[in-house]
Write a structure and sequence with these properties.
The chain is an alpha+beta fold. The protein folds into two domains: 22-212, no CATH class; 233-342, 3-Layer(aba) Sandwich (name from scop). The chain is 69% helix and 6% strand. The chain has twelve helices and five strands. Strand 1 (258-261) and strand 2 (266-271) form a beta hairpin. It is elongated and about 130 Å long.
């Protein structure tokens, strides 16, 4: 009975999300960042190299000039070049990091996860988490990624051996071009491979997340009771409501002018006073035990009981409590009222 065989309920998933417990892949986020940064460095590599070379030759440019006169321009140059090198990658990493997280989890503000918790300070629990199955899987994944990357670099370099053989006669410019081409290939292939791994990891993380949140049958029942109410209590509440409605129906019957029945299963109480209502009004209606009780009350109160099967059925099916009788039933009801006036005693 304690086996967690049931899928997590929407409430369980919602509560976990509020705590910041959602399925997300760090590999996917890292891959998105890697691709973005690689794309940036490939597209803007020349400018970055230019800025770095400019910083390297600044000391030589200062040579022969008074230090006091060079501090301001050199500082400005260093700041501008450094900003050009450092700030764009940081902004790219920040924006795309948030984007990659939102793609997986949507907009999520889990402030509860920021609250201090004694569990976070529990050395024993933390040590246990370090050797958990989840962390072991992450460790193995990292090893496989390193092995995979090593094989990939080997294959790219091996494929570029022909070009590397041309390095001596091509000079320094040739070396730079060949190395740039080789590194670019490694980056592109690595990004493509890691992106595939990232998508698989998303599926795996979602599977694991759902598995961790699985519930026992007792937990599902308990949650249902907490959210919907105990079925026994709900049943009792419904019963009390029905009893209250029945009591109200029966009490309203005491004010009726006449009770129309069919003769034992349906009862409709009609009220009519010429100076109060232009047409007869249905003040209560019931069937079964309620109808029987309405008849008993009518007898106790001396209210006439008219047994008319077609009229009783029509009133019960088409009339509404606290409303005038339907227009097509005015004539048969009027006959009953005329009959009542002609009778000196109850029926």
């Amino acid at each position: 009975m304690n086996e967690k065989t049931e899928d997590p309920t929407p409430k369980k998933l919602r509560d976990a999300r509020n705590k910041g417990q959602v399925a997300k892949s760090k590999d996917f986020t890292q891959t998105v960042l890697l691709i973005a940064l690689i794309g940036y460095f490939i597209g803007n590599g020349a400018n970055i190299l230019e800025d770095m070379m400019a910083l390297m030759v600044l000391p030589a440019e200062m040579y022969g000039h008074p230090v006091s006169s060079m501090i301001a321009p050199i500082s400005t140059e260093i700041m501008n070049r450094s900003i050009g090198i450092i700030v764009p990658p940081i902004l790219i990493a920040l924006i795309l990091g948030v984007f990659a997280e939102m793609v997986q989890t949507g907009v999520l503000f889990a402030f509860e996860s920021l609250k201090p918790s004694a569990k976070k300070l529990n050395v024993g629990a933390n040590a246990k988490n370090m050797v958990s199955a989840k962390n072991m899987v992450e460790f193995l994944k990292n090893i496989l990624k390193v092995v995979f990357l090593s094989i990939l670099i080997y294959l790219v370099v091996y494929g570029a051996l022909g070009d590397l053989m041309l390095v001596p006669p091509s000079g320094l410019s040739g070396v730079t071009a060949i190395l740039a081409q080789t590194v670019t290939q490694v980056m592109i292939y690595t990004s493509a491979a890691y992106l595939i791994v990232g998508f698989f990891d998303i599926a795996y993380q979602r599977f694991q997340h759902k598995k961790q949140l699985k519930m026992t049958k007792d937990e599902v029942k308990r949650e249902y009771k907490e959210s919907e109410g105990d079925p026994l209590i709900k049943g009792k509440r419904k019963q009390l409501h029905q009893e209250m409605m029945q009591n109200s129906t029966i009490e309203r019957t005491r004010k009726a002018k006449v009770l129309v029945t069919n003769p034992t299963h349906i009862a409709i109480a009609l009220y009519y006073e010429a100076d109060e209502t232009p047409l007869p009004v249905v003040i209560s209606a019931g069937e079964g035990a309620v109808a029987k009780r309405m008849m008993e009350v009518a007898e106790q109160e001396g209210i006439p009981i008219m047994r008319n099967v077609p009229l009783a059925r029509s009133l019960y099916e088409t009339a509404t409590v606290d409303q005038f009788i339907p227009g097509d039933l005015i004539e048969p009801v009027a006959e009953i009222l005329r009959w009542l006036e002609s009778e000196a005693t109850p029926y």
